Predict the structure.
Amino acid sequence: MAEDLNPFKIAQHQLDEAAEIMKLDKQAHAILREPKRVLVMNIPVKMSNGRTQTFTGFRVRYNDARGPAKGGIRFHPEESLDTVKALSAWMTWKCSLADIPFGGGKGGVICDTKKMNDKDIEALSRAYARALGTDMGPEVDIPAPDVYTTPQIMAWILDEYMNITRKSEFGAITGKPVELWGSEGRMDSTARGGMYVMREAAKRLKINPKKATVVVQGFGNAGRFAYTLSKEVMGAKVVAISDSEGGIYDPAGLSLEKLDEAKKRTGSVQNYSSRGAQKVTNEKLLELKADILIPAAIENQIRADNADKIKAKLVLELANGPVTPEATAILFEKGIMDLPDFLVNSGGVIGSYYEWVQNVTGDYWDTDVFYAKLDKKITKSFNDTMAMQKEYAAKGQKINPRMAAYIIAVDRVAKAMKARGWY
Ligand code: NAD
């Protein structure tokens, strides 16, 4: 039977698996299987052509036992409530594993921004903010950019929010432009955090950092910074990279200048020109022989039907949900270290947390302080995950890193709910 790739079913399945291993209290489990609150909004927007178009928007507050909900807003033509629910659940575990004082949330609007002009995108962003009203806020629910949303969109949403509340609350949203007290470090914090995790995992796997070869799927915010920072943080060499059109592979390594040039000139990195380089499909890219594979594009890329062909020693899930549950089990069987998304890409939300801390305290830091704090925090999450895996191994139970990370995250949320008297 084909794998069920519904993201919310996958999120529930992962929680169920963790709940069984950690013998989670049944009442806590029942609360955590569903979001606390789901908003589905019918949003009419007067477009620049004079007609009113109605959009469907979502905001899900999955759990706020440990603090205000935190999570991005996606503008996507195939957005669905189940995707938003799944992402809000993963945000809950991400914030908990990172041990920052936030719960999990997520939002989205079904729309195709590629077919909209800037005026209409602004009108939609403002209408979304009005529909949400005081259901967002620095102590309530704090959005951020995600797929096809930008710092500029965050600025419009924040402006609308401040018009409603009549308060200067810059901590109501993160991923803002620097002019509105966004953080410079936030731009690359997702990939940077992932690279700190990569550095620590390579040490454990005894991969020589200077000789390490890396394959990256995706050339957006996460993927492009993964390219530059794998060099900067670890000294590793990226031998293949792709975008939605396809990829390019050169065992001698790729040049950023030429990748940018190919992307700009032709719309895709696969048209990179160099003598030793060859085009590769996104399917084949995943199966290349390299030390480290970084899926940094979209979900469900490593599945039951191709997991067996993965040759990397380390899979670093920089995208959300790139490895299905069946594939997770196959990679674990094969002895490949597959580090879960909500650990690897938590640098993004940790960066957002630092932005929020600076906004609510009014105390602004230099970027090197920001990076040093990020390194310390995410390295601790990685070490905690490895320690949890070891703890279960000592009891004779082999669990994969995803389950180890789940157990830490779920336990913290369950304890907070218990202390608050929710069960
Ligand atoms: P993005 O839109 O900037 O880039 C996405 C990249 O993926 C593009 O290069 C696109 O061409 C490529 N792509 C799209 N479809 C593809 C396909 N079928 N095969 C191969 N490549 C494909 O998005 P992003 O911000 O880089 O996010 C990428 C992933 O990382 C998403 O899963 C996102 O949820 C996750 N993530 C991002 C952040 C962040 O701060 N940017 C934080 C946490 C998680």
Observations:
- The mean pLDDT is 96.
- Residues 147, 190, 217-223, 242-244, 282, 296-298, 318-320, 345, 348 surround nicotinamide-adenine-dinucleotide (CB under 6 Å).
